[in-house]
Amino acid sequence: MTTFGDLPEDQASGRIAEIYDEIRTYGAVPYVSSLQRQLATVPGCLEWLWEAARPAFIDGSVPEAAWGAVRGLDLPTLTPVPRPALRAMGVEDGGEAVLQGIYETFLRASPVNMVTASLMGHLLAADAADAAGKGAAAAGTPSWQPPAPPPPLPGFPSDAELGEEGMALLNLFTVDMSGSTFVPGLYRLLAHWPGYLAHVAVDILPLLQRPEILATCHDIVQKIDAVVPPLSRGLTAPPKPFDAATIDALRGSLVVYRGTTSPQMIVFSTLLRDALPGR
After folding, report:
1. pTM of whole model > 0.70?
2. How far is CA 96 from each of CA 85, 100, 190, 192, 193, rounded to the nearest angstrom?
3. How many helices (H) and strands (E) does the chain have?
4. DSSP 3-state assignment of 243?
């Protein structure tokens, strides 16, 4: 199984850096998600995708459809965390605001990433003859004003900062993605507050296989899938700059990303946000 690397934002240059900037702008988020950072490591892939999908971002179609698809989810509630308990977990005033920003960021990014992954699946499935001879899409003038993004996210803590116990705690959230394992960025950010992350583990890990949570994640995928066909109409991609083996590997990664990790980020970011004081 082919696995992909990760091109950090601070290492991007040229066209990739320009695309990263537009992803942040039209996703109304302060960072570029792992989906796009991984695609950026496949030569020509992110450029190919963005050339096709950009028109549906700069007019607001993709973000608005993605966010609208996951409004009003029927979710359970977690026990609220009293502010004194939050302080005892090591989350001070400033940290509480950072947590709010983290959850809001993932609630914006995850639905958009699901739509992006589904759109890419449509584009990968397009017959090569459909794209042959078609020129690049017009650059286009943005016609949509995205909302202001949440505050910048903190960087991920290093292994040295986490220490052995922190790493063991973080590894509780490890997931498998097409044969490789990783810890979703949400939990890596929460690792800045080990006491709070331990509380999150107690609350969240038992829910991962709960039937109602799995049903909600499935419902999210269906809601996202329903908005994608109208968005994909009129989008054309240039000829694919990668071979059939890479296309198969990309499809496998997109299925896991769209069907597992992103729906979970939507569900758990909502639950954890709503359990914070003052909600």
Report:
1. yes
2. 12, 6, 11, 12, 10
3. 13, 2
4. coil
